[in-house]
Design a protein that fits this description.
- The chain has helices at residues 3-25, 31-50, 67-86, 111-135, 145-152; strands at residues 96-100, 106-110.
- The protein is mainly alpha-helical.
- The protein has one domain.
- The chain has a two-stranded antiparallel sheet.
- α1 runs antiparallel to α2 (31-50), α1 (3-25) runs antiparallel to α3 and α2 (31-50) packs parallel to α3 (67-86).
- 26% of the residues are buried.
């Protein structure tokens, strides 16, 4: 499998897992968890913007958002990344992007590196969410990649 196709599949999984988290957090009173989910989603969006050279100086990665706002942003992010990845082939992933971090520091990374970071960052924070949900006495959603593959392989 080519890298681009693999990234498309991983971003589809990312969307599936994010939406399961939104559903899991609806109707429960876990503001810390909603804050982490908001951070995860806002970060995905900001990195999408960085792919186009956005200067992130001063960006707030921890804005207050409702679970409804998170659901909307999850849908929008999935659509943005899906459209982006459909425009690329493997060679396009090696294009270098120049951007500034939230501290104003200039960096250069490839599309491949930034897209990989988005996925790993989101996975890390979904893990945080699983712990918070479980510690609050709730059953967290099943969001393992293998569950996604089993559920969607024949769709």
């Amino acid at each position: 499998m080519q890298t681009i196709e693999h990234l498309r599949q991983l971003f589809a999984y990312n969307d599936w897992a994010n939406r399961r988290m939104v559903v899991a957090l609806k109707g429960v009173e876990l503001p810390r968890a909603v804050g982490i989910l908001a951070h995860l989603l806002v970060t995905e969006r900001e990195y999408y913007e960085r792919l186009y050279g956005k200067d992130s100086t001063g960006f707030d990665f921890w804005p207050p958002m409702s679970i409804e706002d998170c659901g909307q942003m999850a849908r929008e992010n999935a659509d943005l990344f899906d459209k982006l990845l459909r425009r690329f082939d493997d060679e396009g992933l090696d294009i270098t992007v120049r951007y500034r971090s939230s501290e104003g520091v200039p960096f250069e990374n490839t599309y491949r590196e930034l897209l990989t970071h988005v996925l790993l960052h989101s996975t890390t924070h979904r893990g945080n969410l699983m712990t918070i949900i479980r510690d609050a006495g709730h059953e967290p959603p099943r969001i393992d990649n293998i569950i996604y593959l089993r559920e969607t392989k024949y769709i």
